[in-house]
Amino acid sequence: xxxTLFYSPTIEQDRMLPETESHHCVKVLRKQPGDAITVTxxxxxxxxxxxxxxxxxxxxxxxHGILKQPKSWPIRLHxxxxxxxxxxxxxxxxxxxxxxGVDKFVPMRCGFSERKDLKQERLNKIMVSAMKQSKQxxxxxxxxxxSFEEVILTPFDGRKFIxxxxxxxxxxxxxxxxxxxxxxxxIGPEGxxxxxxxxxxxxxxxxxxxxxxxxxxxxxxxxxxxxTIHVINHx
Amino acid sequence: xxxTLFYSPTIEQDRMLPETESHHCVKVLRKQPGDAITVTxxxxxxxxxxxxxxxxxxxxxxxHGILKQPKSWPIRLHxxxxxxxxxxxxxxxxxxxxxxGVDKFVPMRCGFSERKDLKQERLNKIMVSAMKQSKQxxxxxxxxxxSFEEVILTPFDGRKFIxxxxxxxxxxxxxxxxxxxxxxxxIGPEGxxxxxxxxxxxxxxxxxxxxxxxxxxxxxxxxxxxxTIHVINHx
Lengths: 235, 235
Fold this sequence. Notes:
Chain A is about 35% helix and about 25% strand. By secondary structure, the first copy, chain A, is an alpha/beta fold. Chain A folds into two domains: about 5-70, CATH 2.40.240.20; about 75-235, Alpha/beta knot, CATH 3.40.1280.10.
């Protein structure tokens, strides 16, 4: 496997790199025909390739070998979060979460949300570059932003948690979660969930959890929740 | 405890807020004499105060109550890291690590380091604001940047780990670390430690660990290592 990784979801069908990847390959890295490169489809497969046509917009490659590399965690790990007002905080969370491993990002609009919409394209670019940088072959999913209600009413086959700061009966996530369980965890906006949202979630099978005693920023709480699940599954 | 927290390491002696805190209190938050504020000394104590003199550069307060709040983790947790080239990545790591909890940051110069120096002042500001934001009363320590040799030769009373990407015998940190142990963990630069550095560390009592299978950026590895320790101590 060569050191630079490229992303092409359609590599198996068209043997081609998308425009941005082609540009990076030819204009930035100056790859020449015959050079070896590795391409992932973002669906669990690495393709050992050689460059055939070093076209700056549509590189053509030849596939020499296929290496299946499923994700490194055994469960489905979904995080639904209220994007923060400062876009860069959402961006770093998405980068870091992709590096440590997550299956699905579910941005949601909450009662106290300061940000009601989200540009997906830039976040997708960050996910792709974080996947490549961390040498993974699976790209997480990013759903369009949806309402809190949609999120809690969507069926999920696994444990469902809501992390909030209200003084209700809460278990520490690290203590209640059991290795091997699928997880959907909800993280609220800067101003937390509304009490009504917490009730709705509880009535829909979500368990209240805390992530420790320190008050965490939204994006920190998201990352902490994901990594807590990874650690338990790693024990 | 009022919602806005201020930092004054000398509050007990001089009943005064430092210049930046005074400015924030008077010019930004428009606090008036008589208003209640909470101040921490960064050494484990919250002071319930009222504003006496709303001076924009040296606020004077009166102390009405004292609340001791030790840190929320039971061990000494030190991270020695090679600062990344991009300063913003160091800044967010310091912010996030302060939020989730750390006792000491030890920046170090390694063989493959792309950054040989570090402006401490800005990182200290970030630590203070993260401590206040996460409602803690203990400010982590940030040592001046030192050489790799100094770091591994400094005595430490606890487990000493080095996280690297070489194919040597390594334990997953989550599996080898035991609840209650003090920890010093070393995280290398973008280009990893040199093989010699790994040998030196091993000869000085550092155990080689991995942080999972994904290749993590330096700043992500730092945060993942710290949170792994927190999760184990939380079980």
